[in-house]
Amino acid sequence: MSYDAVIIGAGHNGLVAACYLARAGQKVLVVEKNDWIGGAAVSRELYPGFTYSNCSYVSSLFRPEIMRDLELPKHGLQVLPYEGGAVFMEGGDYLGMYRDHDANRREFARHSPRDAEAYDRYNRDVLRHCRFIRPLLMRTPPDPSSFRPRDLSELAWLGKQLFGMSERQMLDMIRFWTMSISDYLDEYFEHPVVKAYLAVASIIGTALGPMSPGTAYVLLHHMMGDVDGNVGSWGYSRGGMGGITKALTASLRAAGGEVRTGSGVAQVLVRNGRAVGVALENGDEIRARRVVSNMDVKRTFLKHVEERELPGDFVKRVKAFKIRGSSGKLNIALDGVPKFTALPEGAPNIRGDMHFTDSIEKMERAYDDWKAGHYSRDPFQDMMIPTLIDPTMTPPGKHFMSCFVQYAPPKIEGRDWTDADRDGFRDACLDQIETYAPGFKSLVLHAEVRTPRELEAEVGLTEGNIFQGELTFDQLLFNRPVPGCAQYRSPIKDLWICGSSTHPGGGVMGAPGRNAAAEILRDIKAPTTHMSEAYAVL
After folding, report:
1. Structural domain harbouring 165
2. Which of 74, 146, 455, 537 sits at a 20 to 30 Å CA gap from 360?
């Protein structure tokens, strides 16, 4: 059987692209190597009665335009906003965060009156940067080397946005995109714990420390989402993060699309410079007019396309694309709610994100371990108990805890991870929690431990990088993934890429998949210059 499009990978971006193509009347098949759907946005029962969000764990970035277009609430998607959070301090105190802005100001003032006064100014300035970036998320980045009318039009639109700023605002934005989050926060705040809490989003999923240039933009990337129109808010997908991909799958099937699990792709089939289908690991071949890869750029072109089919310069640039694993994850089944000694009884902060790293310097020391090729002995953990808001994930009285951990390198001192390394990583994380919540380990019924080794082997994330590539300034917009291949096309005709290696990057956002589908449909209507021809002139 032949298809109009075969999509490789049933992660959220692949499913989004498939939904848009199917709704446009294309005959679409999604092939997935695992026996389950969802990629990194998945819910799985790995301990009896407990549903884990065992990779991605919170929702904010998923674009509301996509939710509306694909009618995802109709297909069961519900995002539940969570309530604030806390940073636990070594001396037994804590910094609490709340959904209420004034409550946050009062909490900042408890630690530093100056920081409370700076909080509004900080929010104003960061939101100004968000307002510039958010409209770019659902637009294909222009190719600055192209003279095609559409690229020139997009460059003119981008210029109009820039020149709508004052000179001071423009300079501030350029500084922001290239600064470290440590330097940026120093311009507003003085108390270490305040800066530690606000720096959290700058290191999630990135192989950089808070003192590394470029981490201020990573913070912005995480603040561009919303829940129910509240910009910067985060929430839990009801039933776990698989609720998003489950709704996408239902939307796809309602539009006539198909999903085939247990169907890993061995190779993209190329004939005379054009993709004509895929060969599966079981030997089957599926023919299609076009192939759309949701895999990262390295996995797509270095492992599943024969090198002789690609320009040498392109292969060189793909090899140089930075995909560095830096994260691990623990998914824990609990027999009850842990008691954190710093939190007052009934404090709402436990229903949000909790951290133990109370200074930028401690974050940087955790990163030092990564640079030395070892998991962090005193790690940064982004810890949540979603079942305090969504009880559907566990039996009554039981709870699921998600711990996202920085830093975990793709190799341990240059060698592959062993099971002993994984166990040491687990113990470092559990021991840290026990310090702030005595008796915690006695509540642990089961713990799934995911290092970069498991993230690559099970989910297909090269080196375990959750963004399919670093979100540094040299890998954004028309440079993502590489110059000349930033509009979801590739040097091979009818081979497209739609994953987080493309603009606008990682997170459970859906924008790469939607933008790729838009470009494919535009190309079907009016075929553009073949990408290999465009690449040859770079």
Report:
1. 100-230
2. 455
